[in-house]
Amino acid sequence: MTSSQIRKKQEARARELPATAWAVLGLLSFPGERTGYELKKWADASLRFFYWSPAISQIYAELRRLEGLGYADSRRSGPEEVRTKRRYAITDAGRAALADWASDTAEAGPPVLKHGVLLRVWLGHLADPARLRAVVADHIARTREELAEVREARTRAADTPAWTYPELALRWSERHHEAELTLAEALLADLDELADGPPPAGGGAPRQGTGDAPTGG
């Protein structure tokens, strides 16, 4: 196989990379070398607030894939460390490929909302009202905790010059969590109002044979 054929094969494989691979390569694009464990900590401190944090097994799988493409390389630590570690770094080819991917707006796609709490509210006609309100109240408590963690991550990022753009993403995430908290508190108020009011028309009994959706279409 010629060098041109090898390059074309690598380019085809690169086009098939999942978003997780690009996210891992993105973590490597900041200064320094890092172990897979350190990359996981970085993902937990930034990516998870607006995208998601891959499992440690996924990170190592993507690192192997990226090395195979020549987008990352690694080296083992020397005898100065008690435990042998493998540290990874982005290559020039990896940085160029990542820059191309990051600037391709067609690949970004629309945001995807999968709200587990809202799915349960949607099925509220099958749930115990008190239990449903408890689910929303728990979500509010978790959102407050997440918001505090986002703000802490923003503070750390603000002190690191190389994290200027990640800090902007965390700033967006802070606003997102604030909005989610406002929406969840309003939802809980709606549920409380529903519990205090009269029962739904028809007593919530199912209508047989209509087949109609509650919305047009």
Supply database-style keywords.
elongated, 217 residues, mainly alpha
Major β-sheet annotation:
2 strands, antiparallel
Mass-distribution shape: elongated
Q: Which class do the helix and strand fractions yield?
A: mainly alpha
User: Hey, roughly how much beta strand do the residues contain?
Assistant: under 5%
Terminal CA distance: 56 Å
Strands of the largest sheet, in order across it?
Answer: 1-2
Helical residues, percent: 55-70%
Q: Work out the helix count.
A: 8
How many beta strands in the DSSP annotation?
Answer: 2
**Which consecutive residue ranges, at least 5 long each, have pLDDT under 50?**
none
What is the element string, with H for helices and E for strands? HHHHEEHHHH
What is the CA-based Rg, rounded?
24 Å
Mean pLDDT score:
86
